[in-house]
Amino acid sequence: RSNLWLVNRVAPGMAEKGQGSVVIVSSIAGLTGSRTLGAYGISKAADMSLARSLALEWGKQGIRINCIAPGLIKTDFAKALWDNPDTLAGALKSSPLNMIGEPEDIAGAALLLGSDAGRFITGTTIVIDGGATIGGE
């Protein structure tokens, strides 16, 4: 609900200027099932749907709305996952690149979506997970 509230707070100002870009940060948990984090995954799937719906709603005013779905990224928020050797080993095994992401990996996509380089991208979710969701393991 907070993403909807935030977009509705900033989009009118962007509409006055005839352009803008919003990037909602979701998670690959919205693309996969989970035995332990079901409600979290549902909320992240909702973020992706929200980006598509808001892109339709605000597109005519020149506002692009997209979503980024990171996998395991080495942040304080996810420290309990990457700091646990067993969990980290599982994450590395599921990644064809055999690595977890760094915040800079997410920043690049956010810069693309927020800049003129991404001017023809709207209503989509960019997955940044080192290939974890393609099902290698």
Low-confidence stretches: none
Kindly identify the CATH topology: Rossmann fold
Shape: elongated
- CATH architecture annotation name: 3-Layer(aba) Sandwich
Distance between the termini: 34 Å
Note the run of SSEs as H and E: HEHEHHHE
- Order of strands in the sheet with most strands: 1-2-3
Extended strand count: 3
Q: What's the overall average pLDDT, rounded?
A: 95
Radius of gyration, Cα only, in angstroms? 16 Å
Assign the CATH superfamily.
NAD(P)-binding Rossmann-like Domain
Which percent bin holds the helix content?
40-55%
Briefly summarize what is shown:
Helices cover 46% and strands 13% of the residues. The protein has 137 residues and is an alpha/beta fold.
